[in-house]
Structures are given as C-alpha cells and as structure tokens.
Amino acid sequence: MKAARQQAIVDLLNNQRSLTTATLAVQLNVSRETIRRDLSELQAKGKVLRNHGRAKSILRENPDSGDPFHIRLKSHYAHKADIARKALSWIDAGMVIALDASSTCWYLARQLPDIPIKVFTNSHPICQELGKREHIELISSGGKLERKHGCYVNSALISQLKGMDIDLFIFSCEGIDRDGALWDSSTFNAEFKSVLLKRASQALLLIDKSKFNRSGEARLGHLDDVTHIVSDSASS
What is the span of the domain harbouring residue 155? Predict the structure, then answer.
C-alpha cells in the first residue's frame, strides 16, 4: 500500500510539477504526517525534492530547474551566513580561489575581507559584490547570463581555466544523496562545478543540513572529490 501511495505521489508531482503537502494529503486521503514520511523517503531515494511545505518532481531532462537566485537568498539565510563565516578561515592572502553561483557563496563574498587574492566566479551577484573591493582581483567566467540563476554560462570554461591554478574551490550544491553523490539544480551549474572540482587543489563544500539525503537534476561529483565540508549539521 505504501509503495503504491508513494508512486502516486511521484505521478502527481510529475503531472503538476509542484504541490503542497496539504494538497497531496487531501488527494490521497491520508494525513499530512503520512505524506511527510513518504516525501522524506522519496527524497532520500532521489525521486522528489522538498522545500517549505511543498514537494516538486525531479525531471532530469530539464536543464533550467531550481529556485531563482533571489528566492535561494532567503532560504535558510541565517544558517548560510554562519556557514560562510566559518569558511573564511580557509582563505589567505595570495590565494587563487573559485566561487560558484550559490547563495551561500554570495554570503561568503559579502563577508570576504579586502585582501590581495584572486577570485574566479561564474556568479553575477558575486561579481557585483566583489567589484567594490580594491585589493581583490576579480575574474568572471563571462558568457551568457542566466538571470534566473544569477550565473554566467560559458562553453569555453575549460580552455579559460588552462592557464589558471585554483588553490581552493568553494561551492554549494542542491543535495548529497545517501551514496555520497553531489547534485545540483541545473546542468550548466553542475558542469561548472564538476570542472572546478577536478581543477582545484582543494574543494570546500558549504551546505546546510536541509540538503543532506536529497538529490537534484544533475550530478556534479562525489563527496570523495571534496576536501572538507562546512555545515550547520552536527555530523559535519
């Protein structure tokens, strides 16, 4: 019975893309607690995503899923700011660092002291923030601006990085599944992160506890590729 109900949840989400927990409970004639348990299990299996009383389907052929950047900024913002603050201790003068287009890295950029470092990023908001600093050498990946995600998409990324030695890549992701795979909400962001994971000497993953045991649209790597995790989870 549970298996049939969970398949019904997946089917409903595939048809509607996103539904509230309350709506699913009404349509399947069960309690919200039952739906929450089902969604937790389905998320751990990488079949759905949960967010603030809603659930949405995972359609891996969709290259442009995920919440807009301004929405992500508001989600778990206090935890993200604290996580970003912890990551500052990894950054020293003279380093070459890369930052992804995550909202957590934007919080890091806001707190980054104006020291002589080189920063490479595909994030438009981070470029706007760090453009105010006098001593930070800022390098943008450039390319087509995806306004929804606040990032640049550049097919020439690999050749652009050929002459650049990245000391530290700092990034976040949509989720880590039970097998340790790292997932993101869009293929172009996943590709950027996958390249930097391979190129950087060290990789620092900034992730809040809501992202554990969940997946996303595009796989970008594995926990084995990560040097260290900074999180608000007690187990990190």
Answer: 69-231
